[in-house]
Amino acid sequence: MHEQVFFLFKEKKGWCEMKVIVHDNQIEKAIKDLKRKLTKEGFFSEIKERRFYDKPSVQKKKKQAKAAKRRRKRMRKF
To answer: CA-to-CA distance for 26 and 58, rounded, in angstroms?
Structure first.
């Protein structure tokens, strides 16, 4: 018997729905799968970012720094 568990959480873009299937009452495995999916979606990093209020100027600098880091990472791959 399979049970489907749905999770609904709010992102910057809007609401996101996530589904985890529990096989044979293996709750630990389902929790691991959920954590893996949330990490891949960037849920934990977003929670960390939203923990404290940042002024708009600080947000802009962080956004630029993030973009520069992505560019450097992309250049390393080539």
So the answer is: 44
- Alpha-carbon gap, residue 66 to 27, rounded angstroms: 36
Which amino acid, 20? V
Residues 30 and 56 in one domain: no
Per-residue pLDDT of the chain (78 residues; tens, 9 = 90+): 567 776 666 666 677 777 888 888 888 988 899 899 889 888 898 889 889 999 999 999 999 999 999 999 999 987
pTM, two decimal places: 0.62
**Same domain for 36 and 56?**
no
Please answer whether residues 38 and 44 qualify as being in contact, where contact means their C-beta atoms are separated by less than 8 angstroms.
Answer: yes
